[in-house]
């Protein structure tokens, strides 16, 4: 397993990232989501709490030039399922699950983001609590090596979750102009028991110039109750 702090410290621009895993004591399902940005439009955001998760909002509405790909629900809960994504496909998955579709089926109508020449991948995750345990899955939808005529779909499932282990997926390999998109499998990382330690370690090692917001949730798998941490650069 890799050290997530080291991974972030050595990558100035992983873009948007999702982490899902389990604490070492096996009592909590963990998810984290962070956003980064290089343009004024992307950087002009904060995370705000909703009834069951978070969404992005403009920090200064007067400076928001295009909300289409930057304002969305990032985390939602449906019954025993927690959804986390880097775009408005959060709602697509929520509605699909509510109509008895699977996570994978719900994403069949979606592709990568329409932002040429990058075609930023859509990354999504889901946690399912089941009988004092849980499993999770991560998905990435991306163009075929930059060809927008074809969408490559990858699904990674982890069943059941392994105590102390998580998986990290992000939109970009690293900084660049344009940045190269993520490839390969999600990276296995270690997860600590303490939400404060995990949150601080993530935030401190995200690039200072590019980081915008971070959300971390620890879910008690026995009760479904959760504890959240939100950090916004714009305050």
What features would you describe in this structure?
- The chain is mostly beta strands and 235 residues long.
- 15% of the residues lie in helices and 41% in strands.
- The chain has five helices and 13 strands.
- The strands form two sheets. Strands 3-4-5-6-7-8-9 form a seven-stranded antiparallel sheet. Strands 11-10-1-2-12-13 form a six-stranded antiparallel sheet, with helices on one face.
- The mean pLDDT is 97.
Q: Helix share of residues?
A: 10-25%
Please identify, by name, the CATH architecture. Answer: 4-Layer Sandwich
Form type: globular
- Radius of gyration, taken over Cα atoms and rounded to an integer in Å: 16 Å
Which strand-content bin applies to the residues? 35-45%
Mean pLDDT: 97
Reading off the top of the CATH hierarchy, the class is best stated as Alpha Beta
Major β-sheet, in short?
7 strands, antiparallel
């Amino acid at each position: 397993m890799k050290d997530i702090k080291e991974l972030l410290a050595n990558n100035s621009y992983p873009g948007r990232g999702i982490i899902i895993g389990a604490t070492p004591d096996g009592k909590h399902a963990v998810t984290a989501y962070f956003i980064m940005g290089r343009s004024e439009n992307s950087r002009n955001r904060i995370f705000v709490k909703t009834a069951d998760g978070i969404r992005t909002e403009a920090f200064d509405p007067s400076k928001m030039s295009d909300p289409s790909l930057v304002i969305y629900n990032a985390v939602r809960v449906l019954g025993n399922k927690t959804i986390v994504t880097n775009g408005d496909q959060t709602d697509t998955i929520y509605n699909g699950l509510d109509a008895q579709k699977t996570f994978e089926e719900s994403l069949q109508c979606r592709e990568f983001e329409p932002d040429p020449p990058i075609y930023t991948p859509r990354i999504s995750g889901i946690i399912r609590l089941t009988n004092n345990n849980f499993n999770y899955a991560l998905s990435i939808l991306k163009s075929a090596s930059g060809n927008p005529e074809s969408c490559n779909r990858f699904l990674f499932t982890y069943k059941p979750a392994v105590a102390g282990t998580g998986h990290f997926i992000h939109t970009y390999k690293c900084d660049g102009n344009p940045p190269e998109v993520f490839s390969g499998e999600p990276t296995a990382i270690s997860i600590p028991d303490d939400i404060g330690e995990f949150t601080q370690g993530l935030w401190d090692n995200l690039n200072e110039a590019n980081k915008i917001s971070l959300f971390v949730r620890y879910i008690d798998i026995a009760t479904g109750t959760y504890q959240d941490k939100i950090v916004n650069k714009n305050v």
